[in-house]
Design goal:
heterodimer; A: alpha+beta; Alpha-Beta Plaits; Sulfite Reductase Hemoprotein, domain 1; 3 domains; five-stranded mixed beta sheet; 26% helix; B: 411 residues; alpha+beta; four-stranded antiparallel beta sheet; 37% helix
């Protein structure tokens, strides 16, 4: 601890006005319309007639300070010293002078090495979690698998060739911190937690019991220690207890697998937001490049590109053609595990005589 | 061997054969940045982390455990990580993360960002994640002994820590009125004011669990608030959408009538648009503000002029009872003046108070509402039932009704 216990300022988020590009500050709340000039390039036109060009590029998300300094150099050279990021780890370089557009794009792609794209009906950068790099619960590495997937999808990032945008996310455990995407990759465990009864004193046992969504954990004395036991048939291997208590190890390098989920949608456009649904499970967790994941995603994207109508998000396409056709077109098997048998399951069943035969 | 050569050798990268596979390919590689940091700054911590990460790739297992690291006066904001196998990778013994709140909308000046880089490299690894899933600027890799000095220097330059654990978390907002014609309220300004009001709850854990705010300027919901935020603040409008008739005609001329029928008219979820010659006739009373037609025709169609927000409450991720989407609590409220924001905060205060009193450990507010019932929650926070809160009225005949509230009585 420092010798100078300075009182923290409790100030919250910094004032954004000091970080706005001058054209943003000038035309704040007075924008008229925007257009996509080409993949990765937007122009926003203000009521004043001002034009602000945006060059969007995919970042590796986790960066060194020197990489960020290179970003700053570009912002100084082209963007009057301002830059912003998106919620999907894309960067946006802002430009007032159209004549410098090609120079900026060239600098971003050649000097920084980041692809320009991610706008309109493209595959955007993958939202992802921390993985083996930093998380305390990860079953896989999010940053690495995302790098491998985006290597495969870079042309889809740089072009606008889908019916609508495709958001992907990758989470390194079933808690799914990266949330729902049109296509989402998450880890799945296949065993109950292994309890280290000799080290349960580091955990708050009432909290461990309370955290279980399946009420499968109950107090027990084991080898003379206060501990817990897990009712095996109730446990659904979610790993919530592992987050609460490191002595309840859920991960298993030999049996953990990945699953792919489809049809998550955040926007309210046309239809209400939806959660992702299970497409395929049991994919090997295969570092360093996870080729089986990329192959499965490619199958889904190919079918969506072929079958989706303009503006239809992946989940809307599936709703229209039906899940039966989705499994036919992708070739993934529909198994009994695709049927949710948790308490709210009834709402997932087909309670009509409408079937696709 | 000269002293210089010895030093150079001491700081060489160790072999990381698994991670080397992530340096090839066209997408920018995070591993390259790590290696560059090691060779340029000679930071052994980063080399140790690379070594441990490579070992994770070999063994398919993670090796970080949590602990308690923080700064004076705060109880949250630093995520501690200690290596579980520090005997094997002593350089990776400590690798804590400092969560820093970025400006609303993730706007930066190069000057401020460079300053952060310099301070961060002085005290920590120099590795940063832009941004975490909640929206933090994450400074990854600092030792406990440097945390206070790092924070002091950042805090004096206007940066503050983000939330962690049972706190109000760092907020998120879309680009908003800074660059979007669809923004129906000042997402950035509202975000700033709300999060600074809740700074105490951000820094000192005293809630049942996390509480997240996300501010989206329109129902396109670019911050994914309905799925991810306890309090989803989404811009909308009350009057008729604005139509530029000349631009409608231009659009039809340019794209063709087929495109307009197939991609605008027939995609309206409430069939509120009809084609009349080369114009759109819009049934605004029946429009649900989904944004589709505005997205397809941004030059011709714009939100109305009487603008405000819809507040949805209770969105959350999987822990612990499963995914929940936020649901409408306030269909429309103004969000233009200081008084409007104060009224909003007053309502949120009531919700947070009720949840603090009644929420169970690790229960998000959506789960609390599900457990106690929506009627109980509405009474507790003083909200009247509103038809926009439901998809349809109940279809279950078992309910307790107080006759003094009957529609007959009211009439």
């Amino acid at each position: 601890m420092s010798e100078r216990p300075m009182a923290p300022r409790d100030q919250g988020a910094p004032d954004y006005t000091q970080y706005l590009h001058p054209l943003m500050a000038k035309n704040y709340g007075k924008w008229d319309y925007h257009e996509r000039l080409r993949p990765g390039v937007l122009v926003h036109v203000a009521e004043s007639g001002d034009k602000l060009f945006t060059v969007r590029a995919g970042s590796p998300r986790t960066m060194s300070a020197d990489t960020v300094r290179k970003v700053c150099d570009i912002a100084d050279k082209y963007c009057e010293g301002f830059v912003r990021f998106t919620t999907r780890a894309n960067i946006e370089f802002l430009l007032g002078d159209e004549s410098q557009l090609d120079g900026l794009i060239n600098t971003v792609e050649q000097d920084l090495g980041w692809p320009v794209g991610g706008t309109g009906p493209s595959v955007s950068n993958i939202a992802h979690t921390q993985g083996w790099l930093h998380c305390n619960l990860p079953g896989t590495d999010a940053a690495g698998s995302v790098k491998a997937m985006m290597d495969d999808l870079i042309e889809e990032f740089k072009s606008e060739s889908f019916p609508n945008r495709v958001h992907l996310s990758t989470s390194c455990c079933q808690i799914n911190c990266a949330s729902h995407g049109d296509i989402s990759v998450i880890v799945q465990h296949h065993h109950p937690p292994r309890i280290n009864h000799d080290n349960m004193q580091i955990c708050e046992l009432p909290k461990v019991v309370a955290i279980c969504p399946a009420a499968a954990i109950r107090p027990a004395v084991v080898n003379g220690h206060e501990s817990v036991e897990v009712v095996q048939e109730k446990c659904m291997y979610c790993g919530a207890c592992h987050g609460q208590c490191p002595s309840m190890e859920i991960r298993d390098a030999n049996t953990d697998t990945l699953s792919i989920w489809v049809g998550g949608k955040m926007s309210n456009a046309r239809s209400a937001p939806t959660f992702m649904k299970l497409a395929v499970w049991g994919i090997p967790n295969n570092p360093p490049r996870w080729p089986e994941v990329s192959a499965a995603i490619r199958r889904i994207l190919t079918a969506y590109k072929e079958g989706g109508k303009d503006w239809e998000r992946l989940g809307e396409w599936i709703e229209r053609i039906g899940w039966q056709r989705f499994f036919e077109k992708t070739g993934f098997p529909f198994t009994k595990y695709h049927i949710d048998d948790s308490p709210e399951a009834l709402s997932n069943l087909n309670r009509s005589a409408m079937v696709r035969l | 061997m000269s002293e210089q050569q010895e030093k150079k050798q001491a700081f060489e990268l160790h072999p990381t054969p698994m991670l080397d596979h992530l340096e090839s390919g066209p997408w920018p590689s995070f591993i390259k940045g790590f290696k560059e940091t090691v060779t340029r700054t000679e930071k052994t911590m980063v080399r140790g982390v690379l070594d441990q990460l490579n070992y994770s790739y070999e063994t398919k297992m993670g090796y970080w455990k949590g602990g308690v690291v923080g700064v004076h006066g705060y109880g949250a904001g630093v995520i501690s990580r200690y290596s579980m196998i520090s005997d094997q990778f002593p350089e990776a013994t400590e690798f804590h993360t400092m969560r820093v709140q970025p400006a609303p909308g993730l706007h930066y000046s190069a000057k401020a960002l460079r300053e952060v880089c310099d301070i961060w490299e002085k005290y920590g690894s120099g590795l940063m994640s832009m941004h975490g899933q909640t929206g933090n600027l994450q400074l990854q890799g600092v030792k406990a002994e440097n945390v206070q000095a790092l924070f002091d220097e950042l805090n004096q330059r206007g940066w503050d820590l983000g939330g962690a654990g049972a706190t109000v978390r760092t907020g998120a907002s879309c680009v908003g009125p800074a660059r979007c014609e669809q923004a129906c309220y000042d997402t950035l300004g509202t975000h700033g004011k709300v999060l600074s009001y809740y700074a105490d709850l951000t820094h000192r854990p005293q809630l049942p669990y996390k509480a997240k705010f996300k501010f989206s300027g329109c129902p396109n919901d670019c911050t994914n608030s309905i799925q991810r935020a306890d309090y989803a603040v989404i811009g909308t409008w009350k009057d008729d959408m604005q139509v530029d008739t000349a631009e409608v005609e231009n659009f039809i001329d340019k794209k063709g009538i087929d495109y307009v029928v197939n991609n605008v008219i027939s995609r309206c979820p409430t069939q509120a648009i009809t084609l009349k010659g080369k114009q759109l006739e819009i049934d605004n009373r029946n429009c649900v503000r989904c944004m589709h037609c505005l997205n397809v025709m941004p030059k011709a169609l714009s939100p109305g002029k009487e603008r405000g927000i819809t507040l949805l409450v209770g969105g959350k991720g999987h822990l612990k009872v499963g995914n929940m989407l936020g649901s409408v609590m306030v269909p429309f409220m103004k969000m233009e003046t200081e008084e409007d924001i104060d009224a909003f905060i007053e309502l949120i205060d009531k919700m947070i108070d009720y949840w603090s009193e009644n929420g169970l450990d690790h229960e998000r507010i959506g789960e609390t509402i599900e457990r106690v019932g929506v009627q109980e929650f509405l009474d507790a926070v003083g909200l009247e039932a509103n038809i926009d809160m439901v998809a349809h009225p109940r279809d279950n005949p078992f309910f307790k009704a107080d006759l003094t509230h009957s529609p007959e009585e009211a009439a």
